[in-house]
Design a protein that fits this description.
Blueprint: H1 46-53, H2 67-74, H3 80-90, H4 102-114, H5 118-129, H6 139-152, H7 158-167, H8 174-187, H9 190-203, H10 209-222, H11 225-240, H12 248-276, H13 280-294, H14 300-309, H15 316-328, H16 337-349, H17 353-366, H18 372-392, H19 395-407, H20 414-426, H21 430-442, H22 449-461, H23 465-477, H24 484-497, H25 500-512, H26 519-528, H27 535-544, H28 551-563, H29 567-579, H30 586-599
Helix pairs in contact: 1-2, 1-3, 2-4, 3-5, 4-5, 4-6, 5-6, 6-7, 6-8, 8-9, 8-10, 9-10, 10-12, 11-12, 11-13, 12-13, 13-15, 14-15, 15-16, 16-17, 16-18, 17-18, 18-19, 18-20, 19-20, 20-21, 20-22, 21-22, 22-23, 22-24, 23-24, 24-25, 24-26, 26-27, 26-28, 28-29, 28-30, 29-30
Length: 625
């Protein structure tokens, strides 16, 4: 028959059959000790006595044994002879007629393993072989030696122990298998752990709590949450069916540990999914659902640790699920405020600002009370939304966002009010801009140059020139110095009114204030001249100020010239822009062609080239402040 230690050997190798344990039969003993380079010198007989004296004199004849003293005496032993001499010294020269109890040796072996004195531990076992009483070696001794090898970390000597155990005809028990599995776990040989466990069941041995804990540790090392849950569920079913041997009360306590181990394995699996999976949220969610199916219910701290692991925008789904699970718990606890703040930040990173607002609303209604960081995070999200409304000119949405902030106890500052004003300006909603400006003042805020510039722009687009000039005068009266954009709007207001001298005076005031007019300034003036017929004149003034025209300049100029009944000049401006390498819009091309055809201008339209493929949307003048 195959040896009982076959599981420890490579596949295909079967050791020799076990010899019967008959004291009368001489055993073939394998030397566990590594051959020294030379024979160990005989240690002076006073060595052990000095070591034992540290512990109150060691052992008196017939008295208790000081195990610590024995271990101290044997810690430098290299051979069985060294052990024999030290023991004789410790016994006071009692000779071979008296021996230390076997439990003393097993305790010493364990202690030497913890101190990483593995050679001494092996020497003790060799010494026990030489006693020849047939009862000195058993499973417990070899299990202690295996434990010493494990504690020392010299895993390469495991096979030496197993081979000698087999040579002595000693069969392994469940403790032997448990120790071997734990060694494989430390070595990362996970498949070997499962192979040994299968052999345990095949032999009919009864697994202990340590066996199951070691298997769960193997699943933890492998990071296989699904397999760990499956094993836990199977083990729980066996417990409910009464198939586990032992005290039910003890098993009940053990199952609390097993469940915690399963939760840890799942935690590691989810963290790995969040950092390395192709679909991190989906992979983590599968583990979470598997835990639900297995009836494993983690505590709040488990979910909160996973929330902290969610740092990317792709983690939005799983983070929201974890948050809902924490809120739904009925254990009377309160979610951590730092976790909520992290979630608010994460929702903003994933561009889920309304989800972030929901979490903030939960803080206000359910607790914990938000702190300054909570307020700043949600305020930053509102600013992102307000900036989007400003860029797109969605002024009604901007107003609602402002009202929403006030509802949630967040007082908007100048930045938020200016965003609403700029949205009104972009949408040319002059009345809404005026109302917003008044509300801003009513809330005790002092408008700055951006506020005045946005209001001026809205009034200018609504052709409310007189009202805009009154706002300008008020701005100067309260001591707000205009910037480039404010001057640009004022110049376009005068150009729109047809008062070109005052528009020119604005440019001189800009130079006096050391503010150089830019291409945006002249583009705004030329656009305003669409209604006054002086666009081409300002185009020449632009060159006098050494400002190079841009694509937008030619586009607004062509539109103004066509409206002024000058299609041929518009045609020439298009040709000039093309010769300068500027790419005008399709709308400018269509405007020139249609105007020349309508007026019957004698021009060669083929010189315009192919129609541009870009969009034909309206030209937009930059009025960002």
């Amino acid at each position: 028959m195959a040896s009982s230690l076959a599981v420890f050997h490579p596949v295909g190798h079967l050791p020799s059959p076990r010899r019967p344990r008959n004291p009368a039969c001489q055993r073939t003993s394998l030397n566990l000790l590594r051959s020294p380079a030379s024979a160990s010198p005989r240690r002076p007989r006073g060595f052990a006595a000095k070591s034992a004296a540290v512990s109150d004199g060691g052992r008196r004849r017939g008295g208790p044994v000081d195990v610590v003293a024995v271990a101290a005496a044997l810690r430098d032993a290299k051979t069985a002879e060294d052990v024999k001499l030290s023991v004789e010294d410790f016994l006071g020269g009692g000779g071979d007629g008296e021996h230390l109890p076997l439990q003393v040796y097993t305790s010493v072996i364990r202690g030497l393993g913890k101190e990483k004195r593995l050679d001494a531990a092996f020497a003790v076992v060799e010494h026990l072989k030489g006693r020849g009483d047939g009862s000195s070696l058993n499973q417990f001794v070899y299990n202690c030696l295996l434990g010493a090898v494990k504690n020392s970390g010299e895993f390469g000597r495991i096979q030496d122990v197993l081979a000698d155990m087999e040579a002595q005809g000693i069969s392994p028990n469940i403790v032997t298998f448990n120790t071997l599995m734990s060694v494989y776990v430390e070595q990362g040989k996970i498949q070997e752990v499962f192979r040994v466990y299968d052999d345990i069941e095949g032999r009919g041995l009864v697994p202990t709590a340590a066996t199951y804990s070691t298997v769960m540790s193997a699943y933890k090392s492998a990071g296989d949450g699904f397999a760990a849950l499956k094993f836990f569920v199977k083990l729980r079913e066996r417990y409910k069916d009464g198939e586990l041997v032992g005290n039910p009360a003890d098993w009940k306590q053990d199952f609390v540990k097993y469940e915690k181990l399963a939760i840890r394995v799942c935690h590691m699996a989810m963290r790995r999914s969040l950092t390395g999976a192709d679909n991190p949220a989906g992979a983590a969610l599968k583990v979470l659902l598997a835990m639900d199916e297995a009836g494993v219910r983690p505590d709040r701290s488990y979910y909160e640790r996973l929330v902290w692991a969610c740092t990317g925008e792709e983690h939005y789904t799983i983070a929201k699920e974890l948050y809902q699970r924490i809120r739904e718990r009925d254990d009377g606890g309160v979610i951590s405020l730092s976790v909520c703040n992290h979630l608010i930040w994460l929702m903003g990173r994933a561009k889920k600002w309304w989800a972030a607002l929901e979490i903030y609303e939960d803080l206000l209604e359910k607790g914990p009370k938000p702190n300054n960081l909570s307020h700043e995070l949600i305020r930053s999200h509102f600013n992102v939304l307000l900036s989007a409304a400003k860029r797109r000119g969605i002024w009604r949405w901007a107003v609602r966002l402002l009202e929403k902030m006030q509802e949630k106890g967040l007082e908007p500052g100048s930045r938020e009010w200016n965003a609403v004003l700029l949205a009104c300006s972009r949408a040319a909603e002059s009345s809404a801009a005026v109302d917003t400006f008044k509300r801003m003042i009513d809330r005790g805020l002092k408008p700055d140059v951006v506020s005045y510039g946005a209001l001026l722009s809205a009034l200018e687009k609504g052709r409310l020139y007189d009202e805009a000039l009154r706002v300008w005068e008020h701005m100067r009266k309260v001591g707000v110095d205009p910037n480039l954009h404010a001057y640009t709007i004022l110049a376009s207001i005068y150009a729109g009114k047809g008062d070109h001298d005052k528009a020119d005076a604005v440019l001189r005031d800009m130079l006096s204030a050391k503010i150089e007019p830019t291409v945006v300034t002249f583009n705004a003036i030329i656009t305003a001249c669409t209604r006054s017929g002086a666009a081409f004149e300002w185009f020449h003034r632009m060159k006098m100020h050494n400002v190079e025209p841009s694509e937008v300049t030619y586009q607004v100029l062509i539109e103004a010239l066509v409206q002024d009944g000058k299609p041929k000049l518009a045609y020439e401006m298009y040709i000039r822009a093309s010769n300068q390498g500027l790419k005008l819009s399709a709308k400018s091309y269509d405007t020139v062609v249609e105007a020349c055809q309508d007026y019957g201008s004698l021009v060669d339209l083929n010189t315009l080239g192919l129609r541009p493929i870009n969009g034909s949307g309206s030209v937009k003048i930059n009025d960002e402040f």
